[in-house]
Amino acid sequence: xxxxxxxxxxxxxxxxxxxxxxxxxxxxxxxxxxxxxxxxxxxxxxxxxxxxxxxxxxxxxxxxxxxxxxxxxxxxxxxxxxxxxxxxxxxxxxxxxxxxxxxxxxxxxxxxxxxxxxxxxxxxxxxxxxxxxxxxxxxxxxxxxxxxxxxxxxxxxxxxxxxxxxxxxxxxxxxxxxxxxxxxxxxxxxxxxxxxxxxxxxxxxxxxxxxxxxxxxxxxxxxxxxxxxxxxxxxxxxxxxxxxxxxxxxxxxxxxxxxxxxxxxxxxxxxxxxxxxxxxxxxxxxxxxxxxxxxxxxxxxxxxxxxxxxxxxxxxxxxxxxxxxxxxxxxxxxxxxxxxxxxxxxxxxxxxxxxxxxxxxxxxxxxxxxxxxxxxxxxxxxxxxxxxxxxxxxxxxxxxxxxxxxxxxxxxxxxxxxxxxxxxxxxxxxxxxxxxxxxxxxxxxxxxxxxxxxxxxxxxxxxxxxxxxxxxxxxxxxxxxxxxxxxxxxxxxxxxxxxxxxxxxxxxxxxxxxxxxxxxxxxxxxxxxxxxxxxxxxxxxxxxxxxxxxxxxxxxxxxxxxxxxxxxxxxxxxxxxxxxxxxxxxxxxxxxxxxxxxxxxxxxxxxxxxxxxxxxxxxxxxxxxxxxxxxxxxxxxxxxxxxxxxxxxxxxxxxxxxxxxxxxxxxxxxxxxxxxxxxxxxxxxxxxxxxxxxxxxxxxxxxxxxxxxxxxxxxxxxxxxxxxxxxxxxxxxxxxxxxxxxxxxxxxxxxxxxxxxxxxxxxxxxxxxxxxxxxxxxxxxxxxxxxxxxxxxxxxxxxxxxxxx
Length: 805
Ligand code: PCD
Ligand SMILES: [Cu+]
Hints:
Helix 11 packs parallel to helix 19 (760-776). The longest helix is centred in the C-terminal third of the chain and has 28 residues, at 568-595. Helices cover 29% and strands 25% of the residues. Strand 33 and strand 34 (671-681) form a beta hairpin. The chain folds into 3 domains: 8-35 and 503-646, 2-Layer Sandwich (Aldehyde Oxidoreductase, domain 4), CATH 3.30.365.10; 38-140 and 215-263 and 271-303, Alpha-Beta Complex (Aldehyde Oxidoreductase, domain 3), CATH 3.90.1170.50; 306-487 and 651-800, Aldehyde oxidase/xanthine dehydrogenase, molybdopterin binding domain (Aldehyde Oxidoreductase, domain 4), CATH 3.30.365.10. The protein is of the alpha+beta class.
């Protein structure tokens, strides 16, 4: 557009479109207590459910006596597996193709497992009744270690006994779930054999938990008169829940309405299907009343969706001057009692095969063995797209270990091996096609901003001062460079229980020129109502303030696969842009008719179509919308609506460069974060303010995981971290001031060039914090120590290195 009308910039700003730090429209509600969460749903006659849970990690259930519970005033029903069996609902499919008990059927496999479901007049009666249900258990030997599990005679999953084939191929042992292999092992071993230098390391990425502010819950209401089931719940994927509920219950899908109201944080915890959802549905069908189930904090930590629990061993080959020639990775994955991992079906270990990271590694191999133990099921992507945080932690630790082995600077080692800008699209040895990237630019910007050389000099001086006895504090410089893989995904290789992972947007322009758009995703705090409107504003020339965004109601929203794995921007965001373009195409024809010129003689200009070469002759989108409903236009249907289902051709590959400067008190083990710099590249930025908020949140969760957050078990399978007294959730007290920065490398295949960003800070943050701790001790001979680096473990590291002598 060369004929710029003078007010163009002003009109453009008025749209509050792409790139605008528009204030979050949802926050007026949230900050005034006007949010509407599952626990706010209150229906007439609503009953409350609560679980009897197993105190044992592995035991036979000999008997369940409900009499005393049923005798309590206000108790309506007590459900056990026996009651669910006739409906075939005592077991349910998991997202990973395994099946999981809804209520204990013969035995329990982890502490906190659901044994019976009590339904009562109110929450308090239900809790009292839970205490009155008498369950007789017979303890069985407990296995909490996956390596021990693979050697044990104890059969954890008796229902699978004798099955040598699982949903992901052959099973090697009765406690083995699957082996997943990617890459070329023979070629990789050859490279390792011939290499000038090989660094080997084993590391444990501990079990942790997303722990959102709001726990999981649901309200089921079965209307027996019209046969309709309405289900409110904390669902990150409401449409998938509707389909699964229909398949399980036999209720026709059009008779099920699933509603995800406001969600108080998801972080992957709310992707899976939990026994509580199923039990609230069954209880509503049985009692004819609405039934609410909301878990408490301890139940959330003990029984829903853990994350990580990966034992990883790496071998990395390089030349003497630091060029990486090959990578071998093996993982033993502890999945707990059932394989309820939330990954696309064809990826039993998620996208762990992104473990070659940001480096040009010619040959690589990844092998993952999934194993059953007496721990809670899950394996969700806690702020990371399907095991990407494990992969990035692995490679970013291997790089540090290789740097030690080569006696080289770790920043330089990364620079030598980065995939170069001109190599994109880049085909990785483990099967991915990285869409775009410019790693060197980002790295140089990051190192320059923090004065990397100055930091290393200061660190060396500190080591000398420490040795002279002048200080008891060491300094660590944590580095990480990550490549994320988000936006699952092409339908050709990504599905969940057979449903292809596309996403959708439906837009309806009203006669007065305002609009409503509905999407298949669901915000859990990300700010979709703000940002999706911005994408559309730029596409259709209507101010974001005049576009309402709706998500989460399956009766109104088009089918979509939901929000997790940072897929909303790459997939639903693309669908929004495409739906907007369909609106614009129709608007162009209407404008041409109104202006009495040929379709090709008008062009889009911010908020209007104008005659080419005569910008004073135009019709605004408002005029066009009005005409679409009120004027008979030959050859054009009335109305202005569009829908787009978007199947992305590839994932998007956001990346970033992080640096953490930390001081560690050797005598107390307390780390103090002096500086944290985070450069993120998520392609085209929709809302810089929201991006910054996402980065702050993700970094804080990364700090948690790296420095203390853990779900740990004792030998008997007792959860030792089942309350917020023991499970570390950082507060403003522990969180440093974050410096954010960015570069912009648009995705070449996304309609607006945007990549996801919500998970990036977590994926890049965990290795950065961990590397900072470990780097502080490098001068004293530390090679690797496992997370979480809580004060005790840091003190122990210092002690092991003889620094307390
Ligand atoms: N370029 C760009 C990108 C992006 N963005 C923005 O940002 C956000 C985010 O995005 P994404 O990345 O796409 O993502 P999504 O899908 O939306 O979401 C999801 C994510 O998100 C994150 N973040 C958050 N936030 C909040 N507040 N909350 C929550 O919960 C959460 N979670 C987390 C997680 S964990 Mo997973 O589930 O684990 O898988 S995954 C995840 C949004 O709003 C958007 O729009 C912008 O602006 N631009
Ligand atoms: Cu993940």
